[in-house]
Amino acid sequence: MSENGPLLRAALEGIPTYKPGKRAAEGGEARAVAYKLSSNENPYPPLPGVLARAVEAAGSLNRYPDLACTGLVAELAARLGVPESHLATGTGSVGLTQQLVQITAGPGDEVLYAWRSFEAYPIVTQIGGATSVRVPLTRDEEHDLEAMADAVTDRTRLIFVCSPNNPTGTAVRRADLERFLDRVPTRTLVVLDEAYREFVRDERVADGVDLYRDRPNVCVLRTFSKAYGLAGLRVGFAVAHEPVAAALRKTAVPFGVSQLAQEAAIASLRSEDALRERVAALVAERTRVRDGLLGQGWTVPDAQANFVWLRLGERTADFAAACEAAGVVVRPFPGEGVRVTVGETEANDIFLRVAEGFRKEL
């Protein structure tokens, strides 16, 4: 940058760029990739009734959306059994993640989270000028809650607990989480990031909404991007006690959640039977994929989301390239491993064939 150019914040230097999952190749490319398993998207189209309601809402694109998301908030409050004042909406749960840093932490403050976990955490922390404190996962790819509690200092303002964890898929059990919360000072906000909650089948896993009710320092994040299949509309929500929820509403980008997104989310909530069927089908495919990998000799963490994780270390790039050559795109984390979304049956079959061949070469 020219010396005469505008001065930008030094905190922005070195911020890693958020890397979305690689797209499947377009039809005109020399080597077309048929399936995208890199972004944890739902392979199904919108739920019944959603598209029609969104198209109807599109007729008012010349108008600003409802700033308060009144209808969606009322629907969520009734379904979750929480006061409307305890809800805040945002542009996906990741938008709320950035707002949570804004309302809690700044220069000199610490934001604590497990690692590896959701890659947005270090980005939003650095943007906010705060300091990241990363606590390594256990050998089983789970949150080390004891070590995280030990890492809390008088500078810790915010803690993220991603459950199920992205990208490893492991989820935090309620008893373990309650012990952890008992050790965290009440002045420190603990965020339970539950973007994949609908896919959980382990009854021991904590439900953040149950825990938040009598803990004013707990906030729960959820989204319509995954199980509900609205990734392209960017709408999520937070459940928190009123001071936190009010602060989130203050820091929200005005009119950030479009009217299409609001109406689609409401329609999605009212299509519960179809949602349960689709989630059950994806969970069944997840079980099939994981069982197949275990049968091939892979070590695969207990998957409670809509993806599986393979720790490959230095072979990560080679494995991702082999998948792409076979027709599926997965999400590599260089030097660590690959996250593979559970997608269409055909895509999962291709991935399993690649994994079987690659395993024989190890």
Compact summary:
The chain is α/β, with parallel strands linked by helices.
Written overview of the protein:
The structure is a single chain. About 40% of the residues lie in helices and about 15% in strands. With about 350 residues, the chain is an alpha/beta fold. The termini are far apart.
Summarize the topology:
Layout: E1 35-36, H1 50-58, H2 70-80, E2 87-90, H3 92-104, E3 110-115, H4 120-127, E4 131-136, H5 145-150, E5 156-162, H6 174-183, E6 189-193, H7 208-212, E7 218-223, E8 236-239, H8 242-251, H9 259-269, H10 272-296, E9 307-311, H11 316-326, E10 328-329, E11 331-333, E12 337-341, H12 345-361
Parallel strand pairs: 1-10, 3-4, 3-5, 5-6, 6-7
Antiparallel strand pairs: 2-8, 7-8, 9-12, 11-12
Helix pairs in contact: 1-9, 2-9, 3-4, 3-8, 10-12, 11-12
